[in-house]
Amino acid sequence: MADKKTDKPKKTGGRADTGLKVRVKTARGRTASSQRWLERQLNDPYVVKARKEGWRSRAAFKIIEIDEKHRLLKPGARVVDLGAAPGGWSQVAAKKVGSKPDRVLVVGIDYLDLDPIPGVTLLKKDFLDEDAPAALMAELGGHAPDVVLSDMAAPTTGHHKTDYLRTMHLCEVAAAFAVDVLAPGGSFVAKVFRGGTENEVLAMLKQHFATVAHVKPPSSRQESVELYLVARGFKGRKAAGEGDGESAEREDDGLS
Ligand SMILES: C[S@@+](CC[C@H](N)C(=O)[O-])C[C@H]1O[C@@H](n2cnc3c(N)ncnc32)[C@H](O)[C@@H]1O
After folding, report:
1. Which residue ranges of the chain lie beneath pLDDT 50?
2. Single pTM value for the model
3. What b/e sequence results for 123-161 when a residue is b if at least 16 CB atoms lie within 10 Å of its CB, and e otherwise?
4. Which residue's alpha carbon is at the smallest distance from atom 24 of ligand 1?
5. Range of the domain at 69
6. Which one from 49, 95, 191, 216 is the annotated catalytic residue?
C-alpha cells in the first residue's frame, strides 16, 4: 500500500497554543460527553499543532517526544508499527528512518482502514490473528526490524479493570512478537495503562533488553492512565536465553 509520493509534514515550530478557547454550541443529538470531547479537541494545542504540521494524529507527538529522549528511530532502521491508525506514528517513523516508496522500511498494521502513507506498507489486519506476525515479516522481506512500536489500545469500555486487562494483553502479545523478531540491539515501545505493568511482561523485557523504562511523554494527557514502556538494547535470542539477571528498570517521570 506504499504510495509513490513523499510525505512531508509542514514545519511550523513552537507550540500551537493560540490562547483562544473555542466554545461549542450545544446541538440536538450531541451528548454532554461528546460536547466535552469536541471542546477538548478544538482547544488542545497538540491537536492544532498536528493539523498544522500535517501529522494524522496528536499521538504523533508522543513518539516524537519519546524518540527525542531515547533516540530509537535512526536513519535506515526497520520499524514495525502495531496499531497504526490513523497513522501519526508511522508518518514520524518513516520520516526519521528515511523510508521511501522505493525502499520501504516501515510496516504498520491495524484492523481499521488507513489512508496510504508514502514510504509505509500498511496491513489492514488484526494483530492478534495467528498469521499477523508472518504477514508483517513478509512485508519486511524477512529482515529483522530494529524497532517494534505498539500504540495499540483496545476500545475503552469505561470499566477500568477491563480496559487495563485488554490493553495489557495487547502489550504482552506485542512484547512476545518483539522478542521473536527484533534484531540484536533493537528497541520496543508499548502503550500500557497505569496500575502496574504486569510483572511477567516486565520480567520478560528485563531479561531480553539492556534497559526498560516507564515513560510519560509530555503530550500524553496528564489525566490519561496511559504510559509507555521503552525497552532498549535487545540482547538477541541466544544471549537473553543465557540470562545474566543484570538488567535494571528505570522509572521516568517525563521527558522534559
Ligand atoms: C491510539 S490508536 C493508535 C494511534 C497511532 N499511534 C497514531 O499515531 O495514529 C490505537 C490503535 O490500535 C488499534 N488496535 C487495537 N487493537 C488492535 C489489534 N488487535 N490489531 C490491530 N490494531 C489494533 C486500534 O484500531 C487503534 O487504531
Report:
1. 1-18, 242-248, 253-256
2. 0.84
3. beeebeeeebbeebbebbeeeebbbbbbbbbeeeeeeee
4. 83
5. 60-251
6. 191
